[in-house]
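haha ok so turns out i had the wrong file open the whole time. this is the CORRECT one, sorry everyone. sequence first:
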Amino acid sequence: MKHYSVLLSESIEGLNIKEDGIYIDATLGYGGHSSEILKKIPKGHLYSFDQDKEAIEFSNNRLSKIGNNFTIIHSNFVNMVEELEKLNINKVDGILFDLGLSSPQIDEKERGFSFMIDSPLDMRMNREDKTTAKDIINNYSYDELLNIFYSYGEEKMSKQIAKNIISERENKEINTTKELVDIIKNAVGAKYFNNSHPERNIFQAIRIEVNNELNTLRTILPKAINILNTGGRISVITFHSLEDRIVKQAFKKASDVNELVKGLPEIPSEYKPLIKLINKKPIIPSSKELEENTRSKSAKLRIIERL
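then structure:
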């Protein structure tokens, strides 16, 4: 099971790990980041979250070869605080979020994440969830499709694509990724399709909607900051502009002095910034990493520290 962990050393170094600390890998995947964290905390404990049972099974075996001071939790990271409270953990020393899909998920035919492999329209991170990509494509109204294609895919031909989906599904149900790619191609024409690859944007938009990714990220970031110990850090790796914007805004808000008291000679503690930015500009993959793994091209890493 080959998976390349993007910005691995940079994101781990960014956590400034203490050997007896408590750390969270919010996105376990196939265990690349979790493995590196676990090696560095012989006296600490690692809590890793994932929705994908196959990834959990694989990573459990991988991590067991390093140590037994880890706990894997089968849950979306949006439930992080509640799940940790069940284990009497209220404060932690570092949290890592890697928001990309793992390569095995993309490459696994029946998962339906890739527009390059003909497969059922699924795209669920957690296969126990009910809503699939097929449900969205066949049941959403024109306005709903248009909204997610514009908002989550930032695709300028969204209207034509949404219209063509509505038209095609009147004839027959749309079931596979290839059917959807053909519908997109017919909607925009071969020239635009070959030059701009709108299928990338549309598949991204559908995947975000299926898994409620952006709302989940908006919800968890302030909570994650609140459970950090002083000096604790968060590393977040994003893979598209929508995610990066949410992370940047959340970190900016928590690192700014409250507007109500800006300029006062003495700022009350409840109005002081919660965090400081470790890197003002996002860290991006090195040219060496880009050569080794083209999927890392759009990755950006932001790191903060709790004050």
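Strands lie at 22-25, 45-50, 70-74, 92-98, 228-238, 275-277, 300-306.
again sry for the mixup
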